[in-house]
Amino acid sequence: MAQGKLITMDEFTIMETRKFPQATGELSSLLRDIGLAGKIINKQVRKAGLVDILGKHGATNVQGEEQMKLDIYANETLINILKNSTDCAGIASEENDNHVCYEDTYSANSKYVVLFDPLDGSSNIDVNAPIGTIFAIYRRVSELGQPCTEADFLQPGNKLMAAGYIIYGSSTMMVYATKLGVNGFTLEPSIGEFCLSHPDMKCPENGKIYSLNQGNTVKYDAGMKAYLEYCMESKKDEGRPYSHRYIGSMVADMHRTLLKGGIFIYPGDKGAPKGKLRLQYECNPMAFIIEAAGGIAVSGAQDILDIEPTELHQRTPIFIGSKNMVNRAMEIMKQTEPAI
Ligand code: P6P
User: Fold this and answer.
1) 159-179 as b/e, with b when 16 or more CB fall inside 10 Å?
2) Which residue is closest in CA terms to ligand 1's atom 1?
């Protein structure tokens, strides 16, 4: 990269595509469309405090405009942008019970489908905490020219072509992974472009941060409780006790884990054995990203990316982040709970 030259995400994806002579550029075009949706959502998120759209549907803003709840707005934006894309056959969203097929000819002949959580962590909007959009891109398994089918959206994470997130934080960033690796782009508002700011992102093998909702400890099993004790144990030579950080917004907690290392956990518990987070549009995309960056992501029983989905909105426990921290957590839990 020439010293000081800004490389936009579009320029970067085109350079990446050129590494594969047989590539058609459709994936790059799809990533560009998702980036456009992110910029539109970002504009609305940035004025959420000024416009009466926090948690209310049908509210009006100071100009008397009809306003949507932000997550509905984000969902509508992604659905419409991808409908107009020439590279998406259909979508599945955290906000929609079923997948949506785009019926026009272009879309029916597109080879990709996209799953997304349009605005993850939206309960944090009111307190101005970071929130994000999470997306996952699969090559469809259904016949080109025909409407996409549910099977297109029930593929395991190890079939992902790309996955990423847009974080609406102190700055707005788009981070995405392909099999080539993970790269981060920061929105430069003065030109309205995502520019390469974090090339070739790697998740540190070790870390000193554990991230989970410790308020749920009473519901955790003995193995999980044993790991929490381990994190809080005073062992200076092993860098413990670890620091506890939990924003309550998966995108924000995962962005920190990717950059600084650490472990993010949303386990199952007695009341919810599968935990809270959704496999297809939260855990799989984050697992794809973290593994492309050298980290690992497991459910406790297996690698997240190897789980064979049976339902669009199914949940899974998740332990994800620095390879050595996740492996150590599994060791401790297995020692305590052999039946994991
Ligand atoms: P809890 C936000 O609601 C979310 O879906 C994720 O972004 C976040 O990691 C998790 O739920 C927080 O859940 O139960 O700790 O509030």
Assistant:
1) ebbbbbbbbbbeebbbbbbbe
2) 248
